[in-house]
Structure formats: structure tokens, C-alpha cells
Amino acid sequence: MISLSSRGKRALPFAMASAAVASLVIAAPVWAEPLSLVTALTRAAQADPAAQATQQRLAAASANIRQASVRPNPSLGLEVENALGSGPYGGIDRAETTLSYQQSYERGGKRTARIGAAQAQRDLIAAQGRLRTWNVVWDAHRLWIEAMAAEAEAVLAADRLSLAKAAQAEIGRRVAAARDPLFAGSLADSDVASSRIALDQATAKARQLRLELASLWNGGADFDLDPAWLNDVSAAGATPALIETPDVEVLRAQQRVAAAEIKVETSRRTQDPTLQAGIRHFKADDAFAFVIGGTLPLGRYNTNQGAVARSQAEAMAAATDIEAAERIRSREIAASTLRLVNAAEEVRRIEAEVIPQAERAVTQVREGFARGGFTYRDVMGAQDSLLKVRARRLEILKQFHLEQARRERLSGKWAAVLPDMETAQ
């Protein structure tokens, strides 16, 4: 049989509290399946509600390409001359009727330029669709981290409640033994009630965030999240591999559209001839004759130079936008890396320097309280200090991973989860 000293008996409630906290973590509810980050992002990308609209826009753009390849329509002309005039032309006996067929011929590569511009517009629509899905993936990434942090906050709230209950039990015995005043018991009851409310709120918040995350793919909150993932800050100083993001894809597509428009406007400087062939009927002697002709506009005034210059300026602006975007991305990634390194260092120092001291203070106050040297408020003050330090560490970890998510968005890390707009039709 194991015997306990008086001091050990007094410290027993706090040991039981620690065991209760551990049991809360171990006995966490087991959901249907674990949810990894890549799974959450993939589900959100595949369920993007705007994807159907993108496919409809792509279908419209494909129809526009077909239309751009169509040649000009021919035309039929009918002319009646020398009829209903004066003198010998007062009737229709000398009328001349001409039926002609006319066809315009495009020169200067107009048809090819139109098709290229329509294809560039389709590429832009596909890039814009990927960008919209990219924003959904970012929402999923942020919500996944928020839900993960909420789970960890619920664990802290459960820790606080267990400690408050253990202190309530001990102070109840001390009040019953007239070693502490009655109001000390009331304070302990108040702390337990407050801790229980905080736990309920933290649990509700965690579930709400899981539901909000699952709503991105029309799912339910029947998945598990492991808050221990938050402890990993090893990627703080790593140099991310840069992949072209949908933001830049849109800019490059806009540049291709501008370049295609230059060809379209340049081709319009070339004038298109119209050829005509027909047959003429002379009513006076009931004779027929063939008629051949054509027209060629003179490019004397309108050479479309202004439209060409406008398209060239737009193409240069698109190229400048791409260069500026790449510079901004490099600068923001560098700044983000510095913030990550600072946050990781703060977490490390809290774990190495602050938490051990706070835990030591809690142990010392508990031992003194068991001997009657401290008050209930001293115990709760020490415990609150420890919980605040842990909450501060959790907040920094949450901000660290949100910052890391922003850096991964800038580097294009999760672009691979985006569905292919071309094959999704």
C-alpha cells in the first residue's frame, strides 16, 4: 500500500487536475476522417461555385474563335438603268438590268489576327477563372488555420476549467475546516462558472469555424484537426520555390491580348478590295453581256495609326505590370520571411524562458497553498499567468501560420491543387 504525506494529500487535487487535462486531450472526439491541409484546399478548389460560370465563359470564347474565322459574306446586286426617264427613255423599252455578284477579299492577315485575338481572350478568361478559384483556396487555407487554432484554444479552455475545479475542491475543504473565509469558496465557484462558459464558447467557436471551412465544399464538420500541427515553425527561414501564381497568369494573358490587338489593328491598315462580276440585259434588243469590275478603298486619311499606337501602349503597360508584380512579390516574400523568423524566435523564447518560469511559479504557489502559506487568489493568479503565457504562445503560432500561408500564396505553392480549366469542360 502506498501512503501519502500531509503535503502530498494537499497537492493531490492539482495532480488530479493535470491528469484530467491530459484525459481531455486524449479523449477528444474522433471524427470520421482526419483533414489535412492539402485535402481541404483540394476540396475547396474542386467545389468552387464560380467554376461553372468560368466554363460558360470559355464556351462563349470558343464560339467567338469560330466566329473570328468566318470570311466576309458575298452580296448580290441588282441595278436597273435607262428606265422611266424622259424622251426615248420614258418607258422601260430601253432599260438595262444588271445582276452582279460581289465578294470582298481580306488582306493583311485580318482573319489570322482576329483568330489570334479571340484565342488570347479565351486564355484570359481561363486565367481569370483560375484566379477566382485561387482566392477560394486562400479562404480555405486561412479558415483551416483559424479552425486549427480554435481547437487549440478549446484545449486551453479545458485546461483552465480543470484547474479551477481542482482549486474549487481544495478551497471547499479549507472553508469547511474554517481555514478560509466563506467568500473564498464563492470566488472559487465563480471561477469555475467563468471557466465553463469560456470552454463552451471556445468549443462553439471551433465548431463554427469547422462548419465555415466545410461550407466551401458543401460538407459537414465531421472531420478531425490536430492542433499539434501549430507547433511546427521549422519553415520560418526557408526560401520558398517560386511558381507562377494565377495573379501573374492573368497579367501575362492580358499582355497576350494586347499583343494580339496590335496585329488586329495593324491588319486593318491594309485596304480590302471588292471584286464584282455580273450579267447585263439590254431590253431594247434583248441582248446580254458580262460585266466585270471591282473597288479598292484608298488609304489616304484613315490609316488606323491611332488604334495601332493605343494597342502598342497597352501591350507595354501589360509588360510593365508583370515586371512590377514580380518585384512586389519578391519584396513581400522577403518581408514575410523576416516576420516568420521573428515570430518563430519569439515562440522559442517563450517556450525556453517564460513557460518554465511560469510553471515553476505555479508549483511553488501550490505547495505554499497546501501548507497554508498562500491564499486562493495567489494560486489562481499564478495559474492565470501560466495560461496567459500559453495563450500568447498560441496567438503567435496562429499569426505565424497565417503569415506562412500568405507567403505560400505569394510563392504559388498550392497552385497545383487548382483544376485545369481546359479539361474541366
In a few lines, what is going on in this structure?
With 425 residues, the protein is an alpha+beta fold. The chain folds into 2 domains: 322 residues, Up-down Bundle (Outer membrane efflux proteins (OEP)); 67 residues.
Structure report:
The protein has 425 residues and is of the alpha+beta class. It has two domains: 9-71 and 112-269 and 317-417, Outer membrane efflux proteins (OEP) (Up-down Bundle); 73-105 and 270-303. The protein is built from eight helices and six strands, in the order αβααββααβαββαα. Strands 2-3-5-6 form a four-stranded antiparallel β-sheet, with no helix packed on it. A two-stranded parallel ribbon has the order 1-4. β5 (274-282) and β6 (287-295) form a beta hairpin. α7 packs antiparallel against α8 (376-411). The radius of gyration is 39 Å and the shape is rod-shaped. The model is unreliable at 1-32 (pLDDT under 50).
CA radius of gyration: 39 Å
The share of residues in extended strands comes to 5-15%
Order of helices and strands: HEHHEEHHEHEEHH
Strand order of the largest sheet: 2-3-5-6
Counted by DSSP, the helix tally is: 8
Into how many domains do the coordinates divide? 2
The CATH topology of the largest domain: Outer membrane efflux proteins (OEP)
Assign the CATH architecture of the largest domain: Up-down Bundle
Shape: rod-shaped
Secondary-structure content class: alpha+beta
* Poorly predicted regions: 1-32
* Largest sheet geometry: 4 strands, antiparallel
What is the CATH homologous superfamily assignment of the largest domain?
A: Outer membrane efflux proteins (OEP)
Strand segment count? 6
